[in-house]
Amino acid sequence: MQIGAAARPADLALGLAADPRLAARVAELEASGAAYASDLAFMAPAVRDVHRQMAGAHQIHVDDAAKHTIRPGHNVVDDTFHYADVNQGALDDCWVLAPISSIEKADPGFLARHVSYDAASDAYKVTLFDEARKPVTIDVANSYVGNGSDLAFAGSDASKANLASVYEKAFADYYGTRSGHGDYASISGGPPAEAMIRMTGETPQWREVIPNPYDIADKGVDGSWLRERIAHNEPTVLTTKGDGITDLDPIVPRHAYPLIDVQDVAGRDFAVLYNPWGSNPVSAKAAEAIASQLKYDAGHLAIPVEDIQRLGNAVTHLKR
To answer: Which one of 40, 52, 101, 234 has the fewest beta carbons within 10 angstroms of its own beta carbon?
Structure first.
């Protein structure tokens, strides 16, 4: 999935114009041909409004203490963390947050085991993995970019930092250092596969949702294949198409969703997804209602597997 300049929606173009570093990151990804997710133009209106209020926030350096005004004052990694405690905020980094949610769902506690906290300095050491799959330690101060009294970026809600906040900041430091800018624009848009590598050191697999017509062994993504991923506790993330998704569809373009479950609903396979926004657009009301019937709460939606084939781009997963 690639966002080409000609196909870039007007809202996304506005965001790029407001933030040169974001534009540079998108151009870098386009030049590399990477399959990536960047959902700035399609965020829920309330989230998009925050993004516009925070115009230029992507340019905040991860070490700019004056901008990191949310200071929990305790080790947030010790707090209970659930895969649905991921709320994206105003940074378009679903490619990082969807894998965080998916990894936590498949292996609760894995991410926390790769973070240590020093109370004296009120800071963390986060283990990520570089391009050679070698562990690297990222130092992260326990403070986060604020928008008034709220978090600007990821947290469990508007005001509460959590494990996702720590990892998001570690990613910004990792990519920002390598880009030479050290800011949050460095993680605006990217491939979920890359985020999985950074957090686990493992190489994920990738499958297009539609079967290859020239490969009779390729079945694409169907209910049976998705059930296998769930049965094997594999972190699994769906990325959606850039084109062909309308305001009437339950999922949004250029976004990443962790796969949570596959359930039979009236004889049809439905995939339960979680939206890293923590909420869904109005067009997902019916899908939210089905998820609710299946005992999944806010932020979840359940869609027929045929809709994944119709609206999805690819599924990335860590083989188990």
So the answer is: 52
Distance of alpha carbon 186 from alpha carbon 149, whole angstroms: 25
Phi, psi values for residue 144, rounded to 5°: -140, 150
**Residues found in the chain:** 320
Cα distances from 95 to residues 19, 101, 136, 205, 285, in angstroms, run 19, 11, 20, 15, 24
Strand partners, 264: 269
Query: pLDDT tens digits, residue range 72-120?
Result: 999 999 999 999 999 998 888 999 999 999 999 999 999 999 999 999 9
* Reported pTM: 0.83
- Cα separation, 119 vs 123, whole angstroms: 7
In what helix (H) or strand (E) does residue 126 lie, and over which residues does it extend?
A: strand 123-129
Task: Centre a 10 Å sphere on the Cβ of residue 13 and count the other Cβ atoms it contains.
Answer: 14
